[in-house]
Amino acid sequence: MAEYRINARGLQCPGPIMQLFTQMKSAEPGDLVMIEVTDVGFKKDIEAWCRKTKNTLVSLIENDGVITAQVRKG
Known about the structure:
Strand 1, helix 1 and strand 2 form a beta-alpha-beta unit. This protein has 2 helices and 4 strands. The protein has a single domain, classed as TusA-like domain (Translation Initiation Factor IF3, 2-Layer Sandwich), CATH 3.30.110.
């Protein structure tokens, strides 16, 4: 199982989701991707995106204006 990190701070929708999508295309099932964003709309977007793509949202944390999501490829 591999782990990947994406720094999408400062990007607005759809930038963070597009970066996550691109990384997930090269990931294997079970791999974990952590993404950090500052776009507040991302919290709602990531939940819907995971449901739609059948990936698992492992965690979603907001701290000091930075949203960190961990997604496991399904």
